[in-house]
Each structure stands twice: as structure tokens, then as C-alpha cells.
Please model this.
Amino acid sequence: MMTRREWMRQAAGAAAAAALPTVLTSSGHAASDKEATPGAGSLKAHAAARGLLTGCAVNANLFRDDPAFRQLLAEQYSIVVPENCLKFGYLRPTPDTWNFADADALVSFAEAHSMKVRGHNFVWHEALPNWFASTVNKDNARKFLVDHINTVANRYKGKIHSWDVVNEAIWIKDGRADGLRSSSPWFQMLGPEYLDLAYRTARKADPHALLTYNDYGIEYDTEDDTKKRDAVLRLLRRMKAAGTPIDALGVQSHIHTGDSSFAKGTRELLDGARSLGLQVFITEMDVNDDGVASDDIAVRDQEVAEVYRNYLNAMLRGPEVKAVLTWGATDKNTWLNNGPKFHPKHPTRAERPLPFDADYKPTPAFFAIRTSFDEAKRR
Ligand code: XIL
Model:
């Protein structure tokens, strides 16, 4: 929820940004606070110098309606992922009809600008359409899962860098010894083997895409994250041992200010992935700044930037980390301001979790990300 003042500020900023050419310098600082940096100063140039891809989630409405946003994408990023438009429920308004328009447009744009595309996602317990519960059952679930993956993977065959084949399959609170989310409809209809079926189907349908398992809440040294991380790594080990095709671990990285305890967490993720021969992608990074006491934007942005720097420096120690994506690029669109907030400390304050603010000016996070790339070893 935005205050009226914030809304006015965002609207004014958007108008200004639309008129602004983004001219960035390569010095590490914006030439002025109105400018960000394309070319040699861009996020993608600094990432490429270390053998990394960098990207963001793309909101279809912003992508469709806002040329300045499209320009920002083309200038800054080497990989994109649709925020929502490849999810099951968005693609399938009815059991027999498909809506590929938004995903097609983004994939064409990426091709035209030599960007790679992540596919997100085939199998998730969320974003299922209204018709799902009354239509999909134990008898036909296998066919729905296989047909869905075949149809979508085939349409974009050869154009996808990596697919999030299964998203968020671990949920410790469901109480199973293996940590699997038994409340997921896919689990309830197909049992634990739904994962293996999904990966095998995806491999056959698009042998060139890297098949990824993607999850959140596994980054910190806390007890909860440690339990979930252990379960994720056990799942990956189990699938590898069964010969299930899987190439990468996606670490969502929705993190927050006020806690930089991820030395052990990130080391365990990297060691675990390395021992299984998996690549690692930071797939959905953002830094929730709801907990910063001060309302001063400079103070908040500085804390967010520090968390980016600490986290990326820890993760980029691992040469298996090949891509860094944020969940959105600009504070004009972040899911953190669009949905309900959990236990908010500042319920009406718009968050600033991303490298560009709502006027598309680079925030301190932009410079922190670039510096972390510069400090990483080449891979
Ligand atoms: C979020 C989108 O950003 C929202 O627009 C949507 O309403 C809900 O989903 N983990 C994921 C993403 O894997 O798909 C989620 O995206 C954010 C958390």
C-alpha cells in the first residue's frame, strides 16, 4: 500500500524517467543522481567481465507499457525471467486454451537484444488456475503435468537458458522426514515421484535447457533456514542418485536488512551444490528494508546496499554461481509492494529493495552489486 504522496512521487518520477536518456559512466558512480550507466558501466558489462550473467524478473505489464523500462532491460541485463507470465495459471485460462502472448513477447525481445531467458516455472503449488482443483485428479494428474511441460518446453525449445522445473517443493512445517511439501496438490496426486517425472519430461522436451530446482528460505544461518537447506540438499542428492536429470540449484535469495548471518548458510549451499556437480543461480534476489527504523531514504538505501554486498560477496566465492538475478529491476514494480506484508513494521511505507528506484535511477544497491561483481573471481 502506497501513501498518496508516494504515489504522486512515483507517477512524477515515471514521467521524468520516460523522457530521460539513461547515460551512465564507467567510473562506478552515476555522472549525476539522474543518470545510470549503460555500456561499459552496466551491470551486465561488469558481470560479463567475471563470466557471470545478470538479470531480473520482468513484469509483463511494465514491459508492455513502458519503453523506458524496456530500454533499461536492454542496457543493463544479459538474462531475463518472466515474473508471472510463464506460470501454470497465467498460461492456462481454461484446461484447453493457452495464453502465450506475454511470454512470446518477452522471449522475442530477449532474442532481439541477445539476452538469455530463464523459464519460471513448470511445477509449483501456487499460481494454479481456478479450474485446477475441480479438473485435475489422481487419475489424470500425470498426463496434465507431462502435457504441460511438453507444450511449454517445446514452444520455447532451444531459447531457454534454464528452466525452474520444480519450485519450492520443500516445506518443513508439513512434518515429513524428507521435508517435502505434502500439502502441494502435485504431491497429493502423484507422491514424491512427481519431481523425478517433471525433470525427466523437461530433459526430453528441451535437452539444451539447464534444469533447475528453485527454493527460498535456505540462505541464512538460522535454525529454520538450516533445516530447510538440509532438506533441499538431501532432495537434490536423492534425485542425482536416482539418475534424475538436474543441472542447477536456484537460490531465490529474498533476504532482508538487519541480518547478515549467511556465512555458514551460503557455504553449505555452495559446498552441497559443488559436491553434486550442480551450477548455482541466484534467481530472485531482493532486500526487504521494512525493518529499517529510519524513514530517511539515504539510510534505508545504504542498509539495503550493504546487505547486497555482504550476501553477493559470500555467494560469489563459489565458482559454481553463474548468474545473479533480482526479482524485478525497479522499485516501480516489486512484489514486496504489491501483496500483503507479513508482520510489517512499516505497513504503509513502500519498500526499496532493487537496484533502480521508481524513477529508474540507480540506487546504492546498483553500485553494491557492481562492486561485488568486480570483487568476484572470474568463472
Ligand atoms: C511472485 C510475483 O512476484 C507476484 O507478482 C505474484 O503475485 C506472486 O508470485 N517466489 C517465486 C516467485 O518463485 O514466483 C514469486 O513471484 C515470488 C516468490
